[in-house]
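<goal> How does this chain fold?
<sample>
Here is the protein in question

***
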Amino acid sequence: MAKYTAPIEEELRQRILALPKWVKFAGFMKKALTVFVEELEKNPALKPENFIITVSERKDPSGKK
């Protein structure tokens, strides 16, 4: 599988590294990129400013809270 890279600002890199160790950053990025690619497949004319990242409540697959 090909690896894709994109430069990020040093400040953002430091903030990512400062996240608590229990935060699995890769999982968040995988989900975000999956949604991003799906939206671009639907409409390739979208631009970065068309995307807004928000927090939503996680769906509990077990049906319990």
Notes: Residues 33 and 40 are 10 Å apart (CA to CA).
